[in-house]
Amino acid sequence: MGILVDIAFKLKSPVYHRAFFVHLLLGLHLISTSKLSAQIKDPSDCSGILISDSVIPEPYIREADLMWSGRHWERIDLREKMNQYLYYPLRALPCRKSLYDALIGSIRNLDSPIEVFADDHFEIPLSHRQALSYIQMIDTIRDPDTGEILLMDTISISSKDVKFWELRTDWYFDKSRGELRHRILGISPVVENPKTLDRYNLFWIWYPSARESLASSPAYIRQNQLQHLNYDQVLNMRFFDSVIFKEDNDYDRKIEEYKRSSTLDQLLEADRIKNKLRNFEAELWEY
User: Fold this and answer.
1) Tens digit of pLDDT for each residue in 113-142?
2) Is residue 141 packed enough to be buried (19+ CB in 10 Å), middle (13-18) or exposed (0-12)?
3) How high does pLDDT run on average in the chain?
4) 89 pLDDT exceeds 50?
5) Spatial CB neighbours of 165, under 8 Å, sequence gap ≥ 6
6) pTM for the complete prediction?
7) Are 220 and 42 contacting, i.e. CB atoms less than 8 angstroms apart?
8) Who's near 230: CB < 8 A, 6+ residues apart?
9) Which of 92, 105, 110, 204 could pair with 188 as two cysteines, CB 3.0-4.6 Å apart?
10) Domain map (residue ranges) of the chain
């Protein structure tokens, strides 16, 4: 209170009045410049403002707390607008990559811990060199009489050739937390061969081994560019739209194998499985 009275007394004098406002403006300028300089980042910094490159650990589950578990295979269509952030950019940018480039870039590092398999049951392991041979293939045309090589063509699978992503996911109900949760076990790019236009699974990646690589790659969120999330976060938070094409069953069949009449029946069956999964948690509660 005494300081305020002293300032008010000094402001009555023109000399103190002028000096006070000079110091006040100088102080505000120093504060504003210090705040601005604190926001300046290094040009090579691609981490963004809120991005976290650390993997969020999965919660510990006691075997006694597992009431129910189910396994599903789902397909992410990259032609849908909601999923296009997984597809673009087609050419990797310094601070932004597609999901395919983020994974393939890690596989090119032969010391990467990513585990690659040829099937969705993870029974046929592939080395990184074998996986890279699926990405870049050499097609040869030989003379039918002599067997001499007439032409050699290199076929490279790039981000633009990825049409779908397939996930293998385990859903479980944890009674200690009273919630239905999921864990992604595998992820696979479905590519279109640039030459034959055939679509097939390139390979399957054991997802827990790829989480660190995905956590270091930021994903583009068009609704809010300040919400910088990485690919591991958006996949575990399910920021995508997908269709279930297989549920674990006795015959190990896909939906298209027992719903052959029309694609509409296949879509309705996929919605039935999704609704059953969605209603499972709510039906366990008693009011």
Assistant:
1) 999 999 999 999 999 999 998 998 777 777
2) exposed
3) 81
4) yes
5) 75, 76, 78, 86, 99, 187, 188, 189, 190
6) 0.78
7) no
8) 51, 52, 53, 214, 215, 216, 217, 218, 219
9) 204
10) 68-133+160-283
